[in-house]
Structures are given as C-alpha cells and as structure tokens.
Specification:
Elements (H helix, E strand, L loop, with lengths): L14 E5 L5 E5 L5 E4 L2 H16 L15
Antiparallel strand pairs: 1-2, 2-3
C-alpha cells in the first residue's frame, strides 16, 4: 500500500500526507489546515475522507435571535 518514501500510493485529494520519524502519518487538509495523525496507510485514506467531509459540511448558521434579545 505504501511506496518506499512512506507516502500512500493513492493520493488523497485536497490533503498533504507526510510520514513522520516515528512511523506515523500526518494528514493535513490543504484548505482548512486540519490535521490528523494515523498509524497505517489504510487509516491515511480514512483520515483524508473524514477531513474532506468535515471541510465540506455546512457550518451552523447564526441563530436569528438570542435570549438577550427577548423582552
């Protein structure tokens, strides 16, 4: 699953993957900067999927009013 440099052979869209000195992998989403550290190439792919879903998930909107606005 991994090439000799330690990067997963399947590129993770929108993510940078780096193999750390201790053998783990750091997956960073390019746009948001969110980071996950995982221990196997298979989990690199899962972490990439999760980071992409979290980045695409709509953020909650501001409520139309707050409790301090009530009479």
């Amino acid at each position: 699953m991994a090439d000799p440099t330690g990067s997963p052979e399947t590129p993770i869209p929108e993510c940078d993957v780096e193999r750390l000195d201790n053998g783990t992998y750091r997956v960073r989403h390019k746009r948001t900067g969110d980071v996950e550290v995982v221990d196997t190439p298979e989990r690199v792919i899962l972490a990439g999927v999760l980071l992409r879903v979290i980045a695409a998930w709509p953020k909650p909107s501001e409520p139309p009013f707050r409790t301090g606005d009530l009479p």
